[in-house]
Amino acid sequence: MSISRLRTSVLVASLMLAGAYTLPVQAKPAATAAKAAQAQKQLARLAAAFHMARCKFDPLLFATANGDSRYDDQIGLAISPKVRAAQFTLYRGMQKQLMAVNRNQLSAHDQLTYDLLTYELNNAMQMESFPDHLLPLNQMDNVPSTLANYAGGTGSQPLETVKQYQAYLSRLNQLPAWIDQAIANMREGMHKGVVHPKAIITAMLPQLQNLRAASPETSVFYSPVTRFPASFPEADKKKLSAAYLKTVDSKVAPALNRLVSFLENEYLPAGRASTGWSALPNGAAWYAAHIKDSTNLPLSADEVHALGLKEVARIQQQMALLGPKLGYEGPEKQLQQWMREQTRFNIFTTDEQVLDAYRAIYAQVQTKLPAYFSLVPKAKLELHLEPELTRATASDHYTPSAADGSHPGVFWPVVNDPKKYSRVDMVSLFLHEGVPGHHLHAALLKEIDLPDFRKFSTENPNSAAFTEGWALYSETLGKEMGLYDDPVAYYGHLNAEMLRAARLVVDTGMHAKGWTREQAISYLMDVLGWPEARARNQIERYMVMPAQALSYKIGSLKILELRARAQQALGDKFSYQKFHEVVIGDGTLPMPILEQRVNNWIATSK
Q1: pLDDT in tens, 454-470
Q2: Domain spans of the chain?
Q3: CA proximity to 254, closest of 173, 193, 149
Q4: Under DSSP, is residue 231 helix (H, G, I), strand (E, B) or coil?
């Protein structure tokens, strides 16, 4: 012991014996610990309240679609102006309460939750002044069609118990009120000039018309009672059958008729001839808010547009180099058209063969994962065909596993005709929608200790830069894993990446630079070599979901940028496993927060 420390110890002992020293150095940590515990409790309470609020306002999006089955008996009425106003009032109050929490007293884990909750609340509030509720349905997203898809019981809302049947029935009983509110909102939108283009109304009408049935017994909403599990008691079967019949006949069917009649006779004639969001009142600012929401970054439409053109040119150059390896010697711009005409890639005759091929890719990927990932979920992935109802307009997609284990994660390939289904895109598509894309990320979220608002975040619109960026980044890993040694599979990846790059161009083109729907369709046909019908389907998606399609490429490029930074800084110390732990180990992160965490990891790893 040093002399100075010895003198101090003697002095403290003397003061204690004299009763003049009460060891404040011990009392201070105790007080600090108490304050820290109080701050942690305040944060946990706010985080839980925020998730509960989002679920009650929009349970289909923020609960069921994210694998949280606790709200499967509710639709929510977030499109109601009164409910919407109450939601923003509540969030404003939560912001004030969160500001009262001392962030410095929180653990590193809780500080991240604090930062994410701050981000989520701020992000939600930035949309308050824009009337999204006046456009309550479209051909890509509408509550009646979502509930119709859930009728099969194989998606996000399982139908395997009496309680689950009762929950779905509860939603059917709430559907008429939602439809009537949607009609009222669209009428207000007609008055204020906030309406869909005529082309969009025309596109969504058949889907909603087809939800109507000749009789209640033939309705898709009645269909669950035709598939009761054998374990159901007869009394429950009888009771549920009568209740479903009454609800569909007296409530759902009339409401659907009101909706279709309104769309045909009032809304379609009022549809606008313009294409982009900039044609709406305050549309430029509205679209700018959507860009920030989807990308998490302060990018202008012009910056995104220029980046898209640059990426298209880069991928075209790579395709030109790949052409000869595929046996193609013609003009560069006709490669994609030539590839589609190669019937040797159409190797399937049945739907089951398509699913088997995806299962084989899954097995191959599983052997590659350990070299790149130390974090892998326990939950397995299942493959199911896209339901017939939405097959004509849907894109291949993934639905997360339930946190309670009631259903697995599912990849839904869209197979309209197996004989025309090409193997070209299958590897890249599986890496995106399945593993290590959406499933690895979404399933992990359910298995790590996170607050609910972080655990159930994969389907949230403002998480798209991470969720879709991660999935597109996962496609690029096919090259490292050797899955693109097959030139056909690598072409499929480049072709898919080209779509994501072209989206940056057409989305900003339509919503900020005055492009018409026809101009955007023509661009996709030219760059991707697509037929008009397919290009139209995609363009109409971007027309109703402004800036959502930007998230894929922007997020992927950011993750690739961060990986390159880490590889350059760490050299031989760089590890794919460690990098991926940093990226997905804390759940879904906005791009600025992700960048900060990667930078911190690099600094501590040198």
Answers
A1: 998 887 888 999 999 99
A2: 39-132, 136-273, 287-559
A3: 173
A4: coil
